[in-house]
Amino acid sequence: MLKINVESKDTNSKARAGWFETDHGKVETPIFMPVGTQGTVKAVNQSYLAEEIKAQIVLSNTYHLYLRPGTETLEAAGGLHKFMNWQKPILTDSGGYQVFSLSDLRKLKSGGVEFRSHLDGSKHFFTPEKVVSIQRSIGSDIMMVLDECAPYPCDYDYAKNSVQLTSNWAVLNKEAFEKSKPLYGYKQFQFGIIQGSIYKDLREKSVNDLLKLDFDGYAIGGLAVGEPTEQMYELVDFTTEFMPQERPRYLMGVGRPENILESIARGVDMFDCVMPTRNARNANVFTWNGTLSMRNAKYKDDFKSLDESCNCYTCKNYSRAYLRHLFIAEEILALELATIHNLYFYIDLVTQARVHIINKDFLEWKNKTVNEVSIKN
RNA sequence: GUGGGCGUAGCUCAGUUGGUUAGAGCACCAGGUUGUGGCCCUGGGGGUCAUGGGUUCAACUCCCAUCGCUCACC
Asked: N or C: which end of chain A has fewer CB within 10 A?
C-alpha cells in the first residue's frame, strides 16, 4: 500500500509537502511529472531529464505504448524502465484520456472502449482488465485505472452516466489489479480517477465510490477541458475535501504554472501537463516573469538569457536571440533547449512551492508568484 | 540583329468575352495550445498590376513605345 508521508502542512491553505516511496525511488511532493507519452519526453534525453532538469518521475501512456512498440517488445526489453533507460519512477495513464481526445476514433461500450488506431486504423477493444494487463507489461510504478473523461460542456445526465461507468470500471480495474502480479520483481501501485464533470454532487459520488476500493492514490480527472478556470479551482477545492490525507492526490493534465500553484493551495500533490514540453516546441517559454514567445521579432538582437534568475542549462549558456534564430531556422536544437528550460522551470516551481510550504510562508509567496508567472510578455 | 513568350505581394503564381475595394499558397508579423504528432487552429501587415502614353463610361485585361528577363534562329 502506497502512503504519502506529509511532513508539513500549510496553516493558511490546504497546501502540503510530503513524499512517497516506490521501488524506483522516492518522490517528493508537490511534484510535476514531465509527459513522455511514447516512452520519451520529447526532445530531451534521459540523462538531462534526471541530472539537469531533476525530474523525479515521468508519465507515459498505455494506449500509445500498446500500439507501438507493443507489449511483446516491452516485455522482451524487461519493462519500460530498461527499454527507455529511466531508473526513476514512471506513472502510466490508462488511455482514458484518449477516449476523450480521440473521440472520433472510438466507441464507448459498457464493457470497455473500442478504439480505431490513429496509426493504421486497426480495431482494439480496451477493457479495465486489459488496461491493467498492458500496464503490467509496461511495468509502471503507478498505473491509472481506465476511466471516461467526459467532454465539456456536458449535461448532467451524461455526466451522471459517465461517473457510473467509471465507477463500474473502477471495480473491474481493482479486481484485475489484485488478481495479477508485477512481471519484473518490483511493486506496482494503482490510482483511481474521480470524474463528475462540473457537478459537485457527482464529484462527491465519484470519490466516495472509489474510496470503497481503497486505491493507492486518487486522481482528479476531467478538468481543464474547457470550463472556466475559477470553476476548475472550485471543483478541485471541493473534491480534495473528500480525498484521504494519507494518499497522494493527483490532478491530471493540469496545467499552467498559476493553475498548479492554485491547486497546490487546494491540497493537490501531483501534476502532469503537456504544456511545458508542447509549448517549448512551439517556441513558448515560461519564466518567473511570465511567458515569452521566442519567435517574436523583438528578440532578434536580445542577448539576455530566457530568464536571468533561472539556473537551467539553456539559461546558463544561450541567449534569446540565439533561441529565436534556431526556431526561425527550424533547427532541432531549438526544441531541445526550450524543452530543457520549460521543464526545469516547472520542476523548480513545485520545488520552491515545497520549500515555502515547509517554511510556512506558502500563501503569500503563492499569491505573488501567481501574478508574476501569469504575465504575457 | 530577326521572330516568339513573359513582367501582378518578399517568393511561386491565379485573375473569365474589359465591369464592385486585384486574390491564393509559402514567407513575414501576432495570438492560441492543459492525462502531447515538431502537428494544428485563429487573426494581421504587405501591390504605382515593369515604365510612359493611347482607346473606352470603365484597363491587370485592348493598342503603341520604352526598359528588363527568357527561348528559337542568324
From this structure: N
Complex confidence, ipTM: 0.81
Q: Which of A164, A163, A127, A159 is nearest to A146 (CA)?
A: A127
Nucleotide nearest to A101 (CA to C1'): B35
Q: Is A220 helix (H, G, I), strand (E, B) or coil?
A: strand
Burial class (CB in 10 A: 0-12, 13-18, 19+), A181: exposed
Report the DSSP beta bridge partners of residue A192.
A218
pTM, full prediction = 0.94
| pLDDT of the residue at A284 | 96
The nucleotide whose C1' lies nearest the CA of A59 is B35
Nucleotides of B under 7 A from a protein CB: 28-40
Give me the residues paired with residue A217 across strands. Answer: A191
Is residue A172 within 8 Å of residue A127, measured between CB atoms?
yes
Task: Please give the Cα distance from A200 to A177 (Å, whole number).
Answer: 29
pLDDT in tens, A256-285: 999 999 999 999 999 999 999 999 999 999
pLDDT attached to residue A14: 97
State which residues of chain A have pLDDT below 70. none
Q: How far is CA A125 from CA A77, A78, A114, A144, A222, in A?
A: 25, 25, 4, 17, 22
